[in-house]
Amino acid sequence: MNTKEVLSLFQSDIVAINLGLPGFAENLVGFGADVVNVDWQPPAGGNLAALKALERLEKSARVDIEAANAEAVRRILAAEPMVIGIGKALDTVPGMAKDLVLHSGPPISWDKMCGPMKGAVIGGLIYEGLAANAKEAEELAASEKIRFDPCHHHNAVGPMAGVMTASMPVWIVENKAFGNMAYCTLNEGLGKVLRYGAYSDEVIERLKWIEKELAPILSKALELHGPMDMKSIIAQILQMGDEGHNRNRAGTSIIIRELAPHLVMLDYPKEKLSRALAFLNANDHFFLNLSMPSAKCSVDAAAGIEGSTIITTMARNGVEFGIKLSGLSGQWFTGPSGVVDGLYLPGFGPKDAARDIGDSVITETAGFGGFAMAAAPAIVKFVGGSPEDAIAVTENMYAITNAESEAYRIPVLDFRGTPSGIDVRKVVETGILPAINTGIAHKEPGIGMVGAGLVKPPENAFRDALIAFAEKYV
Question: How many domains does one find in the chain?
Answer without folding.
Answer: 2
